[in-house]
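pinned: reference chain
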Amino acid sequence: MAKKQSAQKEPQKPSLVPPIIASILSAIIPGLGQMLARAFKRGLTILLSFVTIAGLLAWRIYLEGRRYTDIKTIILKAFQFSPILRFVFILLIVLYLWIILDAYLTARKSNKGSRAYGSGLVFFILAVFFLLGWQIGDINMGEFFSQAGEALPTMGRLLWPWEKAVTRPEEILIISTTVQSPCTDVEYPTGEIKEDEPYLVTSPTCGNPTESDGTAGTEFTLIGGNFNPGQEVEIWWSDPIGNEFRQRQSGEYVKVMPDANGDFEIKVIMPYRLIPPVAGEGPKIWEVQGRQVQSVGKAQLSEELTLSVEKMIETIIIGMMATLFGVILAIPISFLAARNLMSQNFLTKSIYYFVRTVLNIVRSIEPLIWAIIATIIVGLGPFAGILALTLHSIAALAKMYSEAIEGIDQGPIEAVQATGANWFQTIVYAVIPQIVPPFISFTIYRWDINIRMSTVIGFVGGGGIGFLLQQWIRLLDYKSAGIAVWFITITVMILDNVSAEIREKYN
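pinned: its structure tokens
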């Protein structure tokens, strides 16, 4: 049996400067002593880390105390407003002293031929970065736990929104009467009290609305009769130009429960309403309404549910079309981005570097940014989403395809080339048979990503269910948003299982 030969490490070269000089140099420029002690990577990491921490600390101090002009006052106020910055400042001083000591130890160990540098300094730097990140991120765990309970009702509506998935058509009974504002010398007539029909009358029949400064308006007594017993009556108003709105008092909507005979009596204050000049001069007529549900029809799918299904299908199509176009365009590009196929001469190498550069630029820009650009060009809608995901898919797939091509076995390529085959024949007979399985796996993986991303680009107008989701969230309609979230989750889970089955089949 052949004996395994252990690789011998090259001896550590001695430091270019004595340990004391290394520590002095690191005191002047943090990390310089380590570099001259032949620990260049360590010294460069220390230098960049120290400069970054010092820069971030100075930035945060300026932001906290920018209302002042004196530098000393700015620092003191920043430490007062954000005590964690004071702690970071102390740690920065400790880090500076540690770097000086580390330079001395590094140079001394280097002179002894040892490479055993301590890792404690690295962990200390990470800890300082963590504290800065805590302050920059404005993390407040106390606030999180104290207010978590307030979010539970909202989370409940998101997690179980199915009450909104089914609706029942309602027939609303609307009974109204009118009041005049302001009062005049001529008494405004009251409503008619009926014996066998629902009615609504007010007392008095004229008054003044609530003022913009909060001065309460006239208090009216609403008297209703012959309504359905046991069902709430909502009180609405219609201003002089016909705008209807539901009245609030003490932060709650005004509503009343009729008695066993269908009668009720409630006191309401005439609400505030800004009346535009188009309403004209002189007294204005307001309408007071009592609204009650008369009957409820059969259950049917709600508009929110049908919209979610429609937009979820649109989302799947966006992801599918983007993946299809991305694959078609990425396959030829991937051959131009494969180093092993494009290293024959200066021209092919130039093409390789150019294609790689373009792919890296396109891939580095997030699909959300591409979606914004696409909406500027083609407007809002699914086409913008398809364009955005297609561009990103081309760059991502071409990179993965090219790496798969670079990892193929060179034997078949050399064998085919030995027969005198040209570049195109080499691709067809030696490369393609080896890359079909990884290409299929990468394509399915990208399709999965595109489905997930197509739910997000809708937030910027790229079509799909994301567009509905951001509208419902902005309107605080969390039950409707919950329906959309459920459909996204279910769809992604199904597609994930489907893609796993396909990958397993071709691997």
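why pinned: The chain has three domains: 19-139, 170-296, 303-506. DSSP finds 15 helices and twelve strands in the chain.
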